[in-house]
Design brief:
Chain B: It comes from Oreochromis niloticus (Nile tilapia). The structure holds two protein chains of two kinds. By secondary structure, chain A is mainly α. Chain A has helices spanning 47-61, 99-111, 115-131, 145-159, and strands at residues 3-6, 19-22, 70-72, 78-80. Chain A folds into two domains: 1-61, no CATH class; 63-159, no CATH class. In chain A, helix 3 packs across helix 4 (145-159). Mean pLDDT of chain B is 92; it is low at 11-22. Classes of the chains: A mainly alpha, B alpha/beta.
């Protein structure tokens, strides 16, 4: 099952308004998250439920390797982070997928009001993935992290 | 999948029961609680199908609407309790949730009356009823008496509330051993304990310890442990990796519904509640659907598959297989389906199609 998430957000819409597009999915019916996640928008909940649901929803869009995350604190502090592991087996080998950290950084830009840059980077990232020519191994390709990164950079240069 | 079919065939061949009981040869009497809304009509469908299958079951219908006993305490009617205590096995349709009735939920009352400690839901993908997930074949086993639903809450000060998650050695041991016993008796390869003992060190830690101890007694069954959030993450990406899952109350509440969603929802998911003293109540877990009640539109699949689960529990594997096959074949064929399954047949037509298949099998 291939899932692509298209983030539709402009400076006028709240940064956390998502529209999930599920490709290759057969008929969905009513009922909950696993059958029709498109019925959901913003969900707020206590700690344990959030622990569960946030991972469940990450799973729906492809897992922790592509899911951004932000932590909001008191006194205006906010820390954005990738929530996947350290992957020691591939560390230092130029094989990692930077998408989760990149999308968290995009989330950070939006939080800072830098919507234009956020949009540019996000679009370049999503277009690269959609194109399916330069992908890291976990995304189904066999490109290096640096090649994936370069592809995104190139797209942004082409946008200017 | 081949594995799913193989385990069903092996189960039938081995003819084992999850509980070590011998059932008297001949007709078994089962307490039937039709329930509310569509309950009576889907119960009728099940009875009809069982008759066509020549299942050696006699139904004893009872109503479980709560009454006030001596002393003002809410209880299930004595004739219902008597019937269950005698028959041990029950099949139950959906019950209305009482909002202003004053009495507690009937499901809660039943659970307490019969000490229904394990909620068991086998989730198997149904061919012909497509969902985004295929080849699902897992079982959730939920501890149903304590945990996060202990009901113990208190206000510390205004605006600060505490809720007690109660985990006991006794309940954890009981559910863990049931899970392994179930796995062994149903030819399941592994049991996975689902927990958050990294965070809830004492409560989930105790639960996990009891699972580990039970695993020692069932070396023929593989034992693994997985954090609840990891299970959820993996469940929505590849549910085929899971087999039997055992967990405390809240996690079970969540996961059992999640897994039901994977295979098509509560309208097609069977459920069994195992109690002390050999009592077991099998039930459909969907609602009473008052909007379609009495209109011959309901889908009896969930109750039927629960009844099949009941037959297996009783050791009647042959009849279980026959009815289950007829039901799945009818759905796979996609010619006679109720509305929720994507067709426009009546409940009675769907029931008849299943009965006809079984006649053709003979």
């Amino acid at each position: 099952m291939a899932l692509y998430r298209v983030l539709s957000s402009s400076p006028n819409k709240p940064a956390n308004a998502l529209q999930s597009t599920l490709l290759n999915m057969q008929e969905t019916i009513r009922e909950p998250m696993v059958q029709d996640p498109t019925q959901f928008d913003v969900l707020v909940m206590p700690n344990l439920y959030g622990d569960i649901l946030s991972d469940l929803c990450a799973g729906l869009i492809g897992g922790l390797g592509v899911t951004p995350s932000g932590n909001i604190g008191a006194n205006g502090v906010a820390i954005f982070e990738s929530v996947h592991g350290t992957a020691p087996d591939i560390a230092g080998k130029d094989l990692a997928n930077p998408t989760a950290l990149l999308l968290s950084a995009v989330m950070m830009l939006r939080h800072m009001g830098l919507h234009g840059h956020a949009k540019k980077i996000e679009t370049a990232c999503f277009d690269t993935i959609r194109d399916r020519k330069v992908l890291t191994k976990d995304l189904g390709g066999n490109s290096k992290c640096s090649e994936f990164t370069e592809a995104i950079c190139q797209r942004m240069k082409d946008m200017d | 999948t081949a594995n799913a079919q193989l385990s069903r065939v092996v189960g039938a061949a081995k003819n084992e029961t999850p509980q070590s009981r011998t059932f008297i040869r001949g007709i078994q009497t089962v307490t039937l609680i039709p329930g509310d809304g569509i309950g009576p009509e889907i119960s009728n469908a099940v009875m009809k199908i069982f008759e066509a299958a020549k299942a050696p079951i006699r139904w004893e219908e009872r109503n479980v609407t709560a009454i006030r006993g001596p002393g003002g305490k809410w209880m299930i009617p004595p004739d219902a309790k008597e019937s269950m205590d005698k028959n041990k096995i029950g099949l139950k349709g959906p019950l209305k949730t009482p909002i202003a009735a004053g009495h507690p939920s009937m499901n809660l009352l039943l659970r307490k009356t019969f000490d229904l400690y394990a909620n068991v839901r086998p989730c198997v993908s149904i061919e012909g009823y497509q969902t985004p997930y295929t080849d699902v074949n897992l079982v959730t086993i939920r501890e149903n008496t304590e945990g996060e639903y202990s009901g113990i809450e208190h206000v510390i000060v205004d605006g600060v509330v505490q809720s007690i998650k109660l985990i006991t050695e006794q309940a954890s041991k009981r559910i863990a051993e049931y899970a392994f016993e179930y796995a062994r008796n149903n030819q399941r390869a592994s049991v996975t304990a689902v927990h958050k003992a990294n965070i809830m060190r004492m409560s989930d830690g105790l639960f996990l310890r009891k699972c580990r101890e039970a695993a020692e007694k069932y070396k023929d069954v593989k034992f693994t442990e997985m954090y609840l959030d990891t299970v959820c993450l993996n469940m929505v990406q590849d549910p085929t990796q899971f087999d039997v899952l055992v967990m405390p109350n809240l996690y079970g509440d969540i996961l059992s519904d999640l897994c039901a969603g994977l295979i098509g929802g509560l309208g097609v998911t069977p459920s069994g509640n195992i109690g002390a003293n050999g009592v077991a109540i099998f039930e459909s877990v969907h609602g009473t659907a008052p909007d379609i009640a009495g209109k011959d539109l309901a889908n009896p699949t969930a109750l039927l598959l629960s009844a099949v689960m009941m037959l297996r529990h009783m050791g009647l594997h042959g009849h279980a297989k026959k009815i289950e096959t007829a039901c799945f074949d009818t759905i796979r064929d996609r010619k006679v389906l109720t509305k929720d399954l994507g067709g426009n047949s009546k409940c009675s037509e769907f029931t008849e199609a299943i009965c006809q298949r079984m006649k053709d099998m003979d």
